[in-house]
Design a protein that fits this description.
heterodimer; A: 472 residues; alpha/beta; Rossmann fold; de novo design (two linked rop proteins); four-stranded parallel beta sheet; 18 helices; 8 strands; globular; B: 798 residues; seven-stranded mixed beta sheet; six-stranded mixed beta sheet; 24 helices; 33 strands
């Protein structure tokens, strides 16, 4: 299928079939893209066949050569990650399908629309890593994805693409499907492993629990994102050279970007990495087609709720991990949230912070207590009980979760302040620090909005709530 | 101590701590290394006896391992070569200050009414490392406070700082994962699951390790303030493990007992019995005055000299017609003096066990093991006795850690699954009476089951015992309805198979090992022989040293008959018991916590017993009673002080040679008795009849909470006593055609009793279990003279 409709695909809710090369969404326009029949009719499992014809080392080298960057958030090259596995057996592949970053919904489409492609990718990765046990962890709130993967997995087992003696070779690989219970933190790889083991989903400390060394059941474990693995079938069929023809030199291939918010056509787009800029994505007719009602852009989140905000100034940054990182944020999981001039910055800030406060697992003190404190202060400001010192207080709470200068993109005349990402943290995982990003972004850029709300607060409301309530 | 005083070891790992170059041990945890080197890092969740989790974030320090300084939790970091650690840097101080402010935002400021106030790590750290002032003006988190999570422990979730100490303890130390985190984020709370209270034998430890006042113990709540408390180190004497404790009092009342970390014994943990049994010391109905009978047979209060004279006269009759029972509850010094007195009088009918123990030769006639030896990684432990969880709970925690974490391999040679069963490598659940046959079959091999034990399990045991690993046998009395000879014969059979095994005595009663060493338990069947002699008219005077044969001797009919037959009973005790009620002379003794003395635990390890409060009324220390009764009986023991007694003991008892009993206080582990035993245990022969067709073999054993005198007198514990019932394997219920909860009749030739029946998966088929001294029925009534007891269970009514 080479013709692009440049519009929504009705049976793939949210997906926009834009112009451009397609690596992982090529089957989406077919209504029955999730079936074994459609998959086989459109080159399904050809990548696995090609991989099995090579040695595992050759497959791993191909992935390394193609520089397949992880699509889950950190953007680490998968081939290099695989190289960290020590020579210890048993070892496991865990597929992170617990997509839950605010704004992200690309992996859900991949799992719902093309489960065979994912299964094939898992098989290729397992073969390259020389392991025979894969766990596919699907987020609890995605029943359709779970159902389709389960069906696809049964079909693939029946057809001999998974299980004992794959495609009549002496390779045997099992894939276990696991349904999560619904927690954002389980998207963090060590928390996902804890959850998979049947424990409470809470992150483990790295070191010593780097998954590649001590992962699932304290054995070497590779945790890969759904989209990362979905790239592998295409790569095996077409080769690393063809893969690197797409995208930029540092970030070859395509990415699925999920755009939401105040654009005319929000949705998931597969675009070449580092070629398209934010401006093109938001305004080009091939993509989102402009800001709603032709309003002015106020700010946008370039990589999920955890990412520091971008503004007008960063619109021309090309979309790849390297450049976005240098500009002071991250492309993360490819979730873009666009907010126009009608947006209340304080409310937007609260909305993101509240998410992290509610999703904190409660393990580390700074995150458990700090995020809920931030939420309460922001809510109080919005309720008309703000105090002038609350702005500094918010920044201070943030610095106790994420010490040091937090990366904040350009604001006003002060230019670009680029700090390496991820930030320093007093917590085990980056969830707590993620709540700091919207606060520092909003306060530095829109301090006047905070101040206006605080100035409008009634005098008696400045009375400390705890004291008024009698406190303890 | 400053960071520079420690002498570096040659094999150490060099690292820099606050600018000073030091050495850590190989693989040493950073926070431990800093503690050892005199640099204190604040912490809440870290506990040296549990797995570090790094979640309170209080111990964050700046660490540079070559990639630039970063904040890391020091409890999770192993010191690596050339690591640079800064516990005082700006970033460290800021992080610690921040964590404390965050911990305090939702913590109630109710310190003035909090039990922990004054000894609270959160208070202490807030003063030392905190910001001093809170910027939090929002409403604090609210929960119902406090809620009971067990019979003994209350939880105040508002005070909780979610450090995971109690939950980790319950899961990894006690093996009772009944409290857990529920909900998430700021709503995370510790709680129990609905209808599953935290009913652990070890729940009190969570109160002790709670770094705030979130967990409080019912017996101590609002009883005292920490600054009113004074304390001494002592030893828990309620069982023979000898757990080290700190005893604290306020206004001359014992109010709290805390575990003290002793590497050799209890690692700081205590069972709830050891922790809360001190309540009995404070009980209303203690014996406070010497008593004798008047002409009408009524008790009258007497002066000590008169009572002593009466006791002295009783001891001055024909030595062969006097029997002395008890002494296992006395401190070593009193045991020594009583033994000297009895020796001077030529009295040889003496026994400190009450018919529920074993031949003392298992202590004196076998190489003796320490707890450390039993728990040493790589070893094999054979459990030939009662469930240590029920009888020796602090020892159970050590054994559990050994088998769960350290790879010690456990063989159960018991009548039922014990609290350690899930970790056992071989489970030899021998039908009562067959333990010796089963033990013998381990070496000879068997093609069919022996005593209900599969050949496969026997083969597993044979492999473990033949592996060459050091073997320790924990020997105790698994079944009070079975002749103790069966156990000794089984031990002997194990010795035939493993000649270099060592024995860890599982005799449970307090200071019974001291009594054995001092000579108060010369015979295997002492108490039964004494009582039989009394029934036969060969003994007419009984002297009871803290013993209640009417309740403690399993063969209850025999005890009853003996008391009816004798003419004089002298009882030295702390409480009115069934036996003191039958006494002619009653001498009130000071209880645990009221006297100084020495304790000898099941390893033969000596530790101090300390006086913290004064005894009520005229009650006196046992050693004084012994000395004065001796004087009244015309024997001069030549001691007027405890110190003189100890000097005599050191001079006269070989096992105490070179041990200064005055210097035990403050010794972390305590010295072991001198002397090593060669194997000299002879196998008794015991013949056990076959089980009759529809009979079940009776298993009578103890539970931690029973109707024992001490538990009965501790208000917080008394209601925990097990309720009487008979349990059988689930399959047996069907065979009998009864349902769990039904009332059944349990009977044998001499009578029957009606009890509710329960299913218990830990029991093998063919066994009926009735707990000893349970609330409502005492299984002693079912126990007779035979080597085993067979019972039949019948439906009652339609």
């Amino acid at each position: 299928m080479s013709t692009h409709t440049n519009d929504y695909v009705p049976h793939a809710p949210g997906y926009v079939d834009n112009e451009g090369p397609k690596v992982v969404t090529s089957r989406f326009p077919y209504e029955d893209s999730f079936t074994m029949e459609r998959s086989l009719a459109t080159g399904g499992y050809e990548g696995l066949k090609a991989a099995l014809a090579k040695s595992p080392a050759e497959v791993a080298q191909e992935v390394k050569d193609a520089v397949v960057l992880g699509r889950g958030g950190a953007g680490f090259p998968a081939g290099i990650k695989w190289g960290f596995m020590p020579n210890i057996w048993p070892r496991y592949l865990v597929v992170n399908g617990d997509e839950s970053e605010p704004g992200t919904y690309k992996d859900r489409l991949l799992m719902e629309r093309d489960p065979h492609q994912l299964i094939e990718g898992c098989m290729i990765a397992c073969y390259a890593l020389g392991l025979n046990q894969c766990f596919l962890y699907v987020r609890g709130e995605m029943p359709l994805a779970h159902e389709r993967i389960a069906t696809a997995l049964n079909d693939a087992y029946a057809a001999g693409y998974v299980g004992k003696n794959v495609m009549d070779t002496d390779v045997s690989i099992d894939i276990v499907l696991h349904w999560g219970a619904g927690a954002y933190i389980v998207g963090e790889e060590t928390a996902l492993i804890e959850s998979l083991e049947g424990n409470r989903g809470q992150p483990r400390l790295k070191p010593p629990y780097f998954p590649a060394a001590k992962g699932l059941y304290y054995q070497p474990t590779i945790v890969n994102n759904v989209e990362t693995l979905a790239n592998l079938p295409w790569l095996m069929v077409n080769g690393a050279e063809a893969y690197k023809q797409m995208g930029s030199e540092a970030s070859p291939g395509t990415r699925m970007l999920a755009v939401s918010g105040h654009v005319k056509r929000p949705g998931v787009y597969e675009v070449e990495q580092g070629v398209v800029s934010f401006r093109e994505l938001f305004y080009d007719d091939n993509f989102c087609g402009g800001i709603r009602d032709d309003n002015e852009l106020k700010m946008f989140i370039p990589g999920g709720g955890s990412a520091p905000w971008f503004f007008e100034d960063q619109l021309d940054v090309p979309m790849e991990g390297r450049t976005v990182g240098a500009a002071g944020s991250m492309l993360g999981s490819g979730a873009l949230v666009v907010m126009d001039e009608t947006t209340d910055a304080v409310k937007a800030c609260l909305r993101v912070v509240r998410f992290f406060a509610r999703e904190s697992c409660g393990k580390c003190t700074p995150c458990r207590e700090g995020t809920s404190w931030e939420e309460k202060v922001l809510q109080r400001i919005l309720d008309g009980h703000g105090r002038p010192e609350d702005i500094d207080l918010l920044l201070e709470i943030g610095s106790n979760i994420s010490p040091g200068t937090y990366p904040v993109a350009a604001f006003g005349d002060e230019g670009l302040e680029a700090v390496p990402f991820p930030p320093k943290q007093t917590t085990i995982c980056p969830l707590g620090p993620s709540s700091v990003a919207p606060i520092t972004s909003a306060i530095r850029r829109f301090r006047d909005e905070f101040e206006a709300k605080i100035d409008a607060s009634s005098d008696d409301a400045a009375e400390p709530v705890g004291a008024a309530a009698g406190g303890h | 101590m400053t960071a520079t005083e420690e002498t570096p070891t040659t094999t150490g790992v060099p690292f820099t701590l606050n600018g000073v170059e030091l050495e850590a041990h190989e693989g040493e945890n950073l926070i431990d290394a800093c503690d050892r080197l005199g640099v204190h890092i604040p912490r809440f969740c870290y506990h040296p006896r549990m797995t570090p989790v790094g979640m309170c974030r209080m111990c964050l320090v700046e660490i540079d391992t070559g990639r630039g300084p970063a904040l890391q939790p020091s409890c999770m970091m192993t010191v690596s070569p050339n690591m640079v650690v800064n516990t005082e840097s700006e970033a460290t101080v800021k992080a610690q200050d921040g964590v404390l402010e965050l911990l305090l935002i939702n913590h109630p400021l109710d310190c003035p009414v909090c039990d922990k106030g004054g000894e609270c790590p959160l208070q202490d750290n807030a003063y030392a490392f905190g910001p001093g002032e809170s910027r939090f003006v929002e409403e604090k988190r609210h929960y119902e406070k406090p809620i009971p999570i067990s019979d003994l422990v209350y939880l105040d979730r508002e005070r909780c700082i979610l450090c995971d100490r109690c939950t980790r303890f319950a899961d990894e130390v006690a093996g009772d994962p009944l409290i857990h985190f529920v909900d998430r984020g700021a709503q995370t709370q510790v709680n129990t699951f609905p209808d599953h209270p935290f009913s652990s034998y070890f729940s009190g430890n969570t109160v002790q390790i709670c770094p705030v006042g979130a967990l409080t113990a019912k017996p101590y709540r609002f009883k005292a303030r920490p600054w009113d408390l004074t304390g001494v180190e002592s030893t828990a004497a309620v069982d023979s493990t000898g757990a080290r404790v700190a005893v604290q009092s306020s206004q001359n009342r014992l109010v709290r007992v805390l575990g003290v970390d002793s590497d050799a014994v209890n690692w700081g943990w205590l069972s709830d019995k050891e922790r809360f049994i001190h309540e009995a010391t404070d009980a209303e109905d203690r014996l406070t005055d010497p008593l004798t009978r008047d002409a009408n047979g009524e008790f009258v209060v007497r002066r000590w000299v008169d009572a002593n004279r009466a006791a002295g006269e009783a001891l001055s009759g024909d030595a062969d017609r006097i029997g002395v029972i008890g002494g296992a509850r006395l401190p070593l010094e009193a045991q020594f003096l009583w033994a000297r007195l009895l020796e001077a009088k030529g009295i040889t009918n003496v026994d400190a066990q009450l018919g529920d123990g074993l031949d003392p030769a298992i202590v004196s006639g076998a190489p003796r093991a320490t707890i450390e030896r039993a728990c040493n990684p790589g070893g094999v432990v054979v459990l030939l006795g009662a469930d240590p969880k029920e009888e020796l709970p602090s020892l159970f925690l050590r054994l559990r850690h050994a088998v769960a974490e350290d790879g010690v391999k456990l063989i159960e040679l018991t009548p039922r699954a014990s609290g350690l069963s899930s970790y056992a490598k071989a489970r030899l659940h021998a039908l009562p009476g067959t333990a010796a046959e089963v033990a013998a079959a381990i070496s000879t091999g068997a093609s069919a089951a022996v005593g209900g034990v599969d050949a496969a399990e026997l083969a597993k045991a044979a492999e473990l015992l033949g592996s060459g690993a050091p073997v320790t046998v924990l020997v105790g009395r698994a079944n009070l309805a079975e002749s103790p000879d069966v156990t000794v014969a089984a031990l002997s059979a194990l010795h035939d198979l493993v000649p270099d095994l060592a024995v860890l005595s599982g005799l449970r009663r307090g200071n019974v090992h001291g009594a054995i060493e001092m000579g108060l338990t010369p015979n295997a069947d002492g108490t039964e022989a004494i009582l039989t002699a009394a029934v036969d008219g060969r003994i007419d005077t009984l002297v009871l040293l803290g013993a209640d044969p009417m309740a403690d001797v399993p063969n209850r009919d025999l005890a009853e008959a003996a008391f009816a037959a004798v003419s004089t009973v002298v009882s030295v005790d702390t409480f009115n018991t069934a036996s003191t009620a039958r006494a002619d002379v009653v001498l009130p003794a000071a209880a645990w916590g009221e006297v100084d003395g020495t304790f000898c635990n099941l390893e033969g390890r000596l530790s101090p017993l300390a006086a913290k409060v004064t005894a009520p009324g005229q009650a006196r220390a046992d050693w004084i009673i012994a000395a004065e009764v001796a004087a009244a009986a015309g024997v001069d023991l030549e001691v007027t002080t405890l110190g003189e007694t100890r000097a005599r003991m050191s001079a006269e008892v070989d096992a105490l040679a070179g041990i200064d009993l005055d210097a035990l206080e403050g010794e972390a582990d305590g010295p072991l008795l001198a002397g090593d035993h060669a194997w000299s245990l002879s196998a008794p022969s015991v013949s056990v009849p076959p089980v009759d067709g529809y009979g079940l073999r009776l298993l009578v054993d103890r539970t931690l909470w029973d109707e024992g005198t001490m538990v009965h007198h501790a208000p917080s514990l008394a209601h925990l006593a097990t309720t009487a019932s008979v349990s059988v394997a689930p399959g047996v219920l069907d065979r009998l055609g009864v349902a769990a909860g039904d009332t059944v009749s349990v009977g044998h030739a001499n009578g029957s009793i009606e009890l509710p029946i329960k299913a218990d998966g830990r029991l093998p088929e063919g066994v009926a279990r009735v707990p000893y001294r349970a609330n409502g029925f005492d299984a002693g009534a079912l126990i007779g003279d035979g080597p085993v007891v067979d019972v039949r269970i019948d439906r009652v009514g339609s």
